[in-house]
Amino acid sequence: MRTNVFISGGGIGGLTLGLKLAQCGIDVTVAERLPGPSPIYKGELLQPKSLEILDSLDVIESVFENGHKISDLELTELKNVKAEPEHSVMTYSILPSDYPFSLMIHHETLKGILLNKAKGYPSFHYHPQTVCKEIHDHRVTLENRKKKETFEIECDFIIGAEGRNSVTRDYMGVSVKEKKYNHHFLTVTFPRPEKMVKGKIISTYQSFLGLFPLPDNEVRSVYLIPAGEYKSLRKKPISEFHKLYKKMCPDLEGFVDQIKDWKQIQLMVPLKYHSDTYVKDHLAIIGDAVHTVHPMAGEGMNMAIQDGDVLGELLCDMHKKDKLDPSNLEWYPKVRRKRVSHQMHLSHLSALVYSYPYRPIGWLRGRSLQRMEKDTVSHYKQMLNISGLGLWRETLYDRMIQGGILPMRNGTITGEEKDNTTFTQTQDYPWKETEALQ
Ligand SMILES: Cc1cc2nc3c(=O)[nH]c(=O)nc-3n(C[C@H](O)[C@H](O)[C@H](O)COP(=O)(O)OP(=O)(O)OC[C@H]3O[C@@H](n4cnc5c(N)ncnc54)[C@H](O)[C@@H]3O)c2cc1C
User: Fold this and answer.
1) 224 pLDDT exceeds 80?
2) I need a surface site. Which of 362, 406, 409, 412 has the fewest CB within 10 A?
3) For residue range 179-190, what is the model confidence (pLDDT) as tens digits?
């Protein structure tokens, strides 16, 4: 068998790339280990940049039909019983995009939308229940687990999109150094009150609950626990879990109680790593194969989509111009590495802010968030940077404002500031402007 581009792994990253390549007529083969949808929870929040990409892939209507839009994130810091809670609201609506909001969608639904669309293109080939076992130069050995058959594919390019355990990354000889955190998360979806339509983060100095509405009146929840506490928690009756949630959000009375068994609740262990190498010869890695991010800022699957978009556009141009020298692949990390590093840094900071169960840290967090909401530049920078639409680095000056050392700014963000900090087509795909492809 022969194909132009072989993709190992049909997760969000592999399918985004596969669809994009199929749309420009490249012969692409995706092998996916699993037979069908997985019950394991993975990311569900789409950021504005990913929505723009899904629009360019002509699937945005289906995404809207199956998703729940979130414009505002409400952040509530609960104090003791006597003090009023502190609220702040961070909004996507200030962003310069046709999609100034995020969107919650079931992970497997999104994969289904991408896969169904891709299957409509004759140059797209999909092998479910098929594991990439071995890579040797331009040859890949695959095993179809259902038929218990092994076969080989010859290809020009090999893309590793296998997530955290990547055969392609191993073949490239690349290792990653994992950073673990002092906390884990419990995560579960359950019915929500109809009026709960905004994203909510509720915290005390020692606990954290994130609530992200899904369609069909469901809500995805994430609850922070100290690392290692899961086993002892699971020994308690499920009503103890309900109590933890209702203490943070009384509106969940009658809703969270519909979870009847600990088995419905998944443990999520946050990790972080960023590979030094994205590309080697005719091989490249995307998504979780190359970077894994703490889930606090909801970036994981967005980074996979954005990798797939940039690498896909590059491979399409290489094929269109018949410039197939593998050294062209280096354009992909040139665009992605800096953006990924910054988003990982933001996610890491958000994680640290909620990680330490001390009253002064809770107090500082509440105050900083309120000032971040009210300081126009800080608010804009935070939303722009998590949206994926652009990059505007935070400075010491911003941090001093957020910390209450300097006064807040209340002017508007100028058109020029917006233009200078939002990614342009040229920044997304810089090779197009030059005759640089080999
Ligand atoms: C438990 C968990 C919870 C998460 N929660 C969040 C969250 O709350 N927010 C967020 O933004 N992100 C979250 N993430 C991260 C997010 O899901 C990932 O960043 C995103 O799915 C990455 O997409 P991907 O396509 O790179 O990898 P994956 O989604 O991991 O897809 C890789 C695919 O490759 C397949 N595969 C693996 N090895 C092989 C092989 N040898 N041959 C063939 N196929 C193979 C796998 O079966 C899988 O389908 C979470 C991840 C995990 C694991």
Assistant:
1) yes
2) 412
3) 999 999 999 999
Domain ranges within the chain, ordered by starting residue: 2-66+105-179+272-343, 96-102+357-425, 182-268
Tokens of 396: 């010491």
* Residue 248 in contact with ligand 1 by CB distance below 6 A: no
What value does the mean pLDDT take over residues 397-417? Answer: 92
As given in the structure block, the two tokens for residue 245 are: 């949630």
* The residue type at 105: I
Least confident of 135-144, 244-253, 402-411: 402-411
* Gap between the Cα atoms of 200 and 103, Å rounded: 14
Task: Please report the pLDDT score of residue 171 as a whole number.
Answer: 97
Closest CA to 116 of 44, 194, 210, 37: 37
Q: Which of 15, 32, 162, 171 to mutate to test the pocket of ligand 1 (most atoms within 8 A of CB)?
A: 162
Instruction: Please name every residue paired with 307 in a beta bridge, in sequence order, or none if there are none.
Output: none
User: Which residue is closest in CA terms to ligand 1's atom 39?
Assistant: 162
SS3 call for 318 = helix
Between the CA of 292 and the centroid of ligand 1 the distance, in Å, is 9
Could you tell me which residues come within 8 angstroms of residue 80 by beta carbon, excluding any fewer than 6 positions away?
A: none
Q: Over the stretch 100-155, which tens digit does the pLDDT of each residue have?
A: 999 999 999 999 999 999 999 999 999 999 999 999 999 999 999 999 999 999 99
Per-residue pLDDT band for 222 (boundaries 50, 70, 90) equals: very high
Give 304 Cα–ligand 1 centroid separation in angstroms.
9
Locate tokens 């609740």: which residue? 265
Ligand 1 contacts CB of residue 307 (under 6 A) = no
Q: Where does 182-268 sit in CATH, by number?
A: 3.30.9.100
Looking at domain 2-66+105-179+272-343, its CATH architecture is 3-Layer(bba) Sandwich (3.50)
